[in-house]
Amino acid sequence: MNVKKLAVLGLGAVAALSTLPMSSALAQNEQFVPMLVYRTGPYAPNGIPFANGFRDYMKLVNARDGGVGGVAIVTEECETQYNTQIGVECYEKLKGKGPTGATVFNPLSTGITYQLIPKSAVDKIPILSMGYGQTAAADGRVFPYTFNFPTTYWSQASAFVKYIGDKEGGMDKLKGKKIALVYHNSAYGKEPIPTLETLRAKYGYDLQLLAVDHPGQEQKSTWLQIRRYRPDWVIMWGWGVMNQVAVKEAAAINFPMDRFIGVWWSGSENDVIPAGDGAKGYLAGTFHAPGHGFPVHADLLKHIYSGNEAEAKANNWGEVLYNRGVVNAMYVIEALRAAQAIHGAKPLTGEQVRDGLEALDLTADRLKALGMDGFVSPLKVSCLDHETMGPVRIQQWDGEKWSFVSEWIEPMRDVVRPQVEEAAAAYAKENGITPRTCG
Amino acid sequence: MLYREAGLFKTTYTADQALFPIPLDRYFVLAVLAVAFLVVPLVANEYWLQAVLIPFLVFSMAALGLNLLTGYAGQISLGTGGFMAVGAYMTYKIATGFPDLPIVVAFLLSGLCAAAVGVLFGIPSLRIKGFYLAVATLAAQFFLSWMFNKVPWFYNYSPSGTVTAPPRTLLGITVTGPEASAEVRYLLALTLVAVLALAAKNLVRGRVGRGWMAIRDMDIAAEIIGFRPYRTKLLAFAVSSFYCGVAGAMSLFLWLGSAETEAFSINVSFQVLFMVIIGGLGSILGSFLGAAFITLVPVFLTNAPQLVGLSMPVDLQKHIELMIFGGLIVFFLIVEPHGLARLWQIAKEKLRRWPFPY
To answer: Taking CB atoms and an 8 Å limit, are A93 and B47 in contact across chains?
Structure first.
């Protein structure tokens, strides 16, 4: 457009040529996947394993399969520090990169997701907020460019209530039981409140809401209130340092850990190891299996780390959040594959990848072929349902490792879905969106 | 040479009291404005507008507001983020409650709301000064962000507590919401900043500004020569909070698009205070220089390694960025404790005699 832009382009070209002596023919056959990561800042201990898992799976697809349909995947990281404002800057920086622009954004931050949802529909770049972000986005009619499968916070909250009911010996036993929600005082932490309140009306349990301000290092008063309230169960919606502080505080007041359930962002090794033995028995939700016993892990070990297990473990291989990064990357790759089935095996635009995300159908056979049989559950996205309301499983920390203590729990679709549609309709009204019809 | 004043004869009081008495200064400001209004929207791409220039304008506005209070009236405030939140949330309430109201009117009305809140939290300034006042305004910051988080009425009962700027038009052009182009939002922000900066510049050289400065320099003396401290101080709080409120409204409607209270946290208050200190206390130009320094330097440092063809891991890059940025702040404060505006003034004085200094 002008001299400045030319200069930047020129510098960029020089930079690219000097650092990557790749053939320019290849450069055309590339699919650009942007990565918003946080390897610094207060949430870095959680951001790093996730980013490593995502990166390694992308590398694996290139190394093992030669990309997707012959199209190589290129990635670029942008550091957000979990800060929404820097996240938006990263989005603007990365959205135009690669031959066809950015494919799909995975912000790994509910705050950044909220920022990007309106923009993405205008720029026609899909957002995959895997199990976080705005729950109402599950309604694909109002949010055509936002996806939050396999399952959302509201579904998860309903699954937790189901689990608690099961442990209490039936849903009717929930009446009069006391549940406390300890949550990160942000858009993210407030997500489960509407569902828990609806279910309170339905099952008659008592609910106490306890907000913890960012970043959550100070929770003495929160846990003092819990000691006074004496809840039967504590549910936590935390992230980053807040998790380990809460687990430590719970251990300090001798709260029974097997009655303390964390959201899937409060259930990684980082959250329990600092509390030592006190964390034994702590529960957390998840939508994928822990550990590194799946064929996909063997592939990662072989292709990325040349079989060097120590090096792989230094890169968080097999940790909960690493696995989640792998799952996220797998969803992106499979969506690309689905998009290529519609639009042909070539680099695709964000709009075309969106079609792939909406047509994503991960069957049990497909998961087996990917080496992820039993690692995640199958799912099928549709125009109407961008969430799929996948099942949630509860895992427990035994002081050494996480392992499942429940079967796959189906969320309460009859409770959650009407709420989703109501919230989406309210959003559409406030922002002047005409919902599309799903044929 | 460049800033030669010899030969400039001022024959009227109007000329003598002009905002920019030296013609070169005047031409320079006009040229900057012309470039900002006409050239920048044509050449800058969306990244530049959205990630660099609009935040710069938002923070310029906030720094301007705080500079009126801290720089001119001498009242230290750590409540800037809170007052910005008032502006943002009230604009949201006004814009969603009265969809037909022009959005600029909503901006100004919410500025007035912020001014009222500012006066309320400015009352302690009548009794306490300095660090103690800073602590009192800190209470405003925490109370306001607690309130906007706690009272669902302010965010229209949305389950997540997030406010989203609804689409609104001005003269038939969409200026807010996701459909609004970055150019339009930039131009609206620039217009607001230009008009209010001009107003501030006029304010501080008139009776009001002189009163503020008198209070800042010695409040007892100011009282003796006839300035009523409570009126002067509360007016400073009101005007300053008005600017901060408009800045908050701009940040929600023209920059971020959606926000939660975290976007107006104590960090924002500190950031704006640093802008004012680094830019220069008691200087309108300093507000802009400080905002530019704090918002633009990190963006530059983030992109610098790529520009020179250096590829390094993002975390290392971020750490280096923080170190260099911190180093620069220390460097500038040592070289010129009175801020970047003072550096500019020294340069100007040198240019007057250049190339024959004595």
So the answer is: yes
Cβ–Cβ gap A81/B156 under 8 Å: no
- In CATH terms, the superfamily for domain A153-286 is Response regulator (3.40.50.2300)
147-206 of A, contacting B, C-beta below 8 A: 185-188, 190-191, 193-194
Residue B94: band (very low, low, confident or very high) from pLDDT cuts 50, 70, 90: very high
Beta strand A233-237 pairing with A206-212: unpaired
Q: What's the one-letter identity of residue B328? A: L
Instruction: Locate the domains of chain B by residue range.
Output: 36-266
pTM: 0.86
The model's pLDDT over B329-344, given as tens digits with 9 standing for 90+, comes to 888 888 888 888 888 8
Sheet of strand A402-404, all strands in order from the earlier edge strand to the far edge: A206-212, A178-184, A233-237, A260-262, A283-286, A393-397, A402-404
In 3D, which of A240, A121, A259 has the Cα closest to residue A188?
A240
Taking contacts as CB-CB distances below 8 angstroms, the residues of chain B near A221 are none
Please state the CATH superfamily assignment of the domain spanning residues A28-151+295-391+419-431 in this structure. Answer: Response regulator (3.40.50.2300)
Contact B45 A114 (CB under 8 A): no
For position A3, what pLDDT does the model report? 47
Cβ contact (<8 Å) for B159 and A92? no
Q: DSSP character for B35?
A: I
Comma-separated ranges of CATH 3.40.50.2300 domains in chain A:
28-151+295-391+419-431, 153-286
Q: Say if the ipTM goes beyond 0.90.
A: no
By the CB < 8 Å criterion, does B38 face chain A? no
Per-residue model confidence as pLDDT tens digits over B273-299: 989 998 988 889 999 999 999 888 888
* Cβ <8 Å between A92 and B160: no
